[in-house]
Each structure stands twice: as C-alpha cells, then as structure tokens.
Description:
globular, DUF1491, DUF1491 family protein
Amino acid sequence: MAEPRLAAGIWVSAYLARLRLHDIPVFVTAKGDETAGAVLVKSNTLDGQARLHQRSLDLMSGARTWIVLAEGDEAEVDASIEKQRRFDPDLWVIEVEDRAGRTLLEEPGLAD
Length: 112
C-alpha cells in the first residue's frame, strides 16, 4: 500500500513559509494542481546560473528524494522548465533567489 502524500498546495505553502523564515526570497512562477501537482524548485543564484530540482522516488529504497534535473546557464534551465510544463500543465514551479544557492530542500520535513 502506498504511503499517503501531502497535497501539493499544502506542501508548497509550508515550503514558502520556511524559506521566508530564513529571509530567502521565493516566488511561485507556475501554480499547479492543488492536490497532485508535481513540484519543481528552481534555485537562481542571481549570477546567470541556476539549478532545477525535482522530487523523485528511489526505486531501490522507496525513499523520496530531490534530484537535480538541470543546472547551468539560467536560460537553459528555464528552457528545461518550459519543456516540463508542456508535458505536465499541472506542474508547480517555485523559484528561490539566493546568491548562496540555498533551497533548504535538504532539511527535515523537506528532504523526505
């Protein structure tokens, strides 16, 4: 039996609140399905570079983890986002702006 998942809209709200508590600017650039939409997190380091994270399932362990879907020139990362959005219109896209590249995705409650 599958483990219950938190609704995407609730997870996004909690994630935005956690980032704001750390004074990390964050924006929802594409609002997805409130219940089951997948979430992409773009980390913009404000120097023309970016990294795109996607939640993934480790088939060996069954654990949910964040993987890097794309990284490098921000325009190339944005093109990857657009490609994903054409494939999945219910996709959430969250953009985190932090020169140090902090996303907090490795923190408890967000990492798993």
